[in-house]
Design goal:
47% of the residues lie in helices and 14% in strands. It is α/β, with parallel strands linked by helices and 364 residues long.
């Protein structure tokens, strides 16, 4: 059985690693029922710290095909991916195409496959922010509609699909990000070089990330976020691995950050895990970082008006604050002055990758 895996953005590398490990384990002692995985890297994220470093650190099999597609608008990028992925699919003739999450790579991979009548399996199916202005929301909805296997990380995701009339091929498999958190957490904790490099002490800093277009493309929202980070930096250090898009907008809008906000280039995956685990608090607009904060028992303030990971909010470990300075600071204060509730196991038992491979193998 041949599966073609499409990845292209930072979170997808981490998710693919969990499934690739599970495929390797499945193949042990099963020469006649082995799964052959062919990885295609679209190149959507091209910064070294966001792509090749991950393949090295996470021991993901090297991509057989690298399309080197990045830049341009959503339509241009997706169209170029669609064209090149179709050629790869015709060459490889896989029995299934596996896509992850909600990026342009996800959408292009799913569309290219379904137009060639190749079934699609979508990991992280059923997530909804209910904000159609988000490109990611459009991508995930379309990918779900055309996928044959809908592999859901949470019970809420299954319920979302059911409300939309999708029940066939839907499975609650758990979250591959939790697999990765368990697998790499101790390894990252053992290497605290990034803390030393940034002159940080465990439990005494705020980790911040900001990259969503809804924030970076709106100067008013970005100003509110910058003001909040500046105020937080007066209380404790704030470390901000800065996404290229955010850096560009800060410069073009002449939005200043105080010296207490320690801006650095994007860090590697294991360095990010180390920063997350050791932070007193996380402030982010990233979906993946929200979950990782929950995995590692770190309270999270989300600088968005909605989240796909509503379970973390209901559990009391995540607060939605939008992009207003006062709302962000209020959410931070509520965490620093309050008592955190118990942290229930929302995302499975760390074996989502194995569950996904089991579902795929059953299609052979």
């Amino acid at each position: 059985m041949k599966i073609l895996t499409v990845v292209g953005a930072r979170p997808q590398f981490i998710k693919a690693a969990a499934v690739s490990r599970a495929i390797a384990h499945h193949n042990e002692g099963r020469p006649r029922r082995a799964i052959e995985e062919v990885i295609v890297h679209t190149g959507q994220h091209f910064d070294h710290n966001m792509s090749q470093t991950f393949f090295d650190e996470l021991s993901i099999p090297a991509p057989k095909h690298h399309l080197s597609i990045h830049g341009g608008g959503h339509g241009q990028m997706t169209g170029r991916m669609l064209e090149q992925l179709e050629a790869v699919l015709l060459e490889e003739q896989p029995e299934w195409v596996l896509v992850y999450g909600d990026t342009n790579s996800t959408l292009a991979g799913a569309l290219a496959a379904v137009k060639l009548h190749i079934p699609v399996a979508h990991v992280e199916a059923g997530l909804r922010s209910f904000n159609m202005r988000m490109p990611e929301e459009v991508n995930r909805i379309v990918a779900d509609r055309i996928s044959s296997l809908l592999l859901c990380p949470t019970a809420q995701a299954v319920a979302n699909l059911r409300r939309e009339g999708m029940a066939e091929g839907v499975f609650h498999v758990g979250d591959v990000m939790y697999d990765a958190a368990m697998f790499y957490g101790d390894r990252a904790a053992a290497d605290a070089a990034v803390l030393n490099r940034l002159q940080l002490k465990a439990g005494e800093y705020v980790l911040a990330t900001c990259h969503r277009a809804e924030n970076t493309d709106d100067p008013l929202r970005l100003c509110g976020i910058a003001d909040a980070l500046n105020e937080l930096s007066k209380l404790m250090p704030v470390v901000l691995p800065l996404h290229p898009r955010t850096r560009k907008t800060l410069q073009s809008q002449q939005i200043a950050l105080l010296p207490g906000v320690r801006v650095c280039d994007p860090v590697s995956f294991l360095e990010m895990v180390c920063l997350e685990r050791a932070a007193r608090l996380i402030v982010t607009d990233s979906g993946g970082v929200q979950k990782e904060a929950y995995f590692y028992g770190v309270p999270c303030v989300t600088m968005r008006d909605e989240t796909e990971w509503v379970e973390t909010v209901h559990a009391g470990w995540n607060r939605l604050a939008g992009a207003r300075c006062d709302a962000i600071l209020e959410a931070v204060t509520a965490f620093t002055n309050g008592v955190l509730p118990p942290r229930p196991p929302l995302y499975g038992d760390g074996n989502a990758g194995a569950s996904i491979v089991t579902r795929l193998a059953a299609q052979a």
